Amino acid sequence: MEGTVKEGFRKREDFFRGTVKGLGGSTESANWAYGDTDIFIITDFPEAEAATSLALALALTGSFRVTTTPLLTAKDMDAGAARMPAYRAPGT
To answer: Which residues partner with 31 through β-bridges?
Structure first.
């Protein structure tokens, strides 16, 4: 956080948005917070590989703990449900 305070929150957010755009994605929202999490960012990428490359680059700096949560539509969930394999819990 020290570097962001020194550089400025707006400049840092603009840099991040540019990085996402350079990977073919868009930043839907970026909201600063205080507490356990410093910033919540929602991005949209055309493919998972671009999101993965960003998460890896951020993690390698050592200044981020990245949590990636794919957001799915009802259509995505229905498609997944239609492909559910037969599965059993361990020991059953």
So the answer is: 40
Residue ranges of E strands in the chain: 26-32, 39-44
Which amino acid, residue 75?
K
pTM over 0.85: no
Residue by residue, DSSP assigns 6-72 as HH-HHHHHHHHHHHHHHTT-EEEEEEE--SS-SEEEEEE-SSHHHHHHHHHHHHHTSS---------
Q: How high is the pLDDT of residue 69?
A: 83
Chain centre to alpha carbon of residue 65: 11
